[in-house]
Amino acid sequence: MHPQISLDTWIDAFIEINLAPDGSCGPDHPLWWANERTLFPLKTVGFETMWQFVIGVLARKPPRPVLGVLAAGPLEDMIAHFGDYFIERIEDSARRDPEFRDLLHGVWKNRTPDALWERVKAARGREPLCADGLDYQPE
Questions:
Q1: Cα 104 from chain centroid?
Q2: DSSP letter for each residue of 44-107
Q3: Angle at the Cα of 81 (from 84 to 37), degrees rounded to 5?
Q4: What pLDDT sits at residue 135?
Q5: Backbone φ/ψ region at 43: left (φ over 0), alpha (ψ -120 to 50), beta
Q6: Parts of the chain with a pLDDT under 70
Q7: Is the dihedral of CA 120, 123, 128, 132 positive or negative?
Q8: Could you tell me which residues come within 8 angstroms of residue 95 by beta carbon, excluding any fewer than 6 positions away?
């Protein structure tokens, strides 16, 4: 792995590899390490660093496909495995930042305990009908 790589370099590489054409971003890609570093089972970085990574990628305002990978990968794994530790930050970030709240819509329950999942669902609010987030499903 690349333990000496800065957070900014990691964020840039993650965005770049996840913009690569389908099929070209596998283990042979020179930036594969950026995706591999986010894989929870490998536990290559601490969960505080992973939180900084998620917030850092979101701050760069990457295209939606990258946000989809971010939500369904690192953020979903953090919530499933360390959600109790992060839930107050998740709720606070969702209240303050509509882009973070929208990112939560890309997270699935996975192994998240039921009570914690209810808090995540409350934090993200109603599910948008359209990718632009302008229309919402009726309650």
A1: 8
A2: -S-HHHHHHHHHHHHHT---HHHHHHHIIIIIHHHHHHHHHHHHHHHHHHHHH-HHHHHHHTT-
A3: 125
A4: 45
A5: left
A6: 1-3, 23, 40-42, 128-139
A7: negative
A8: 101, 123
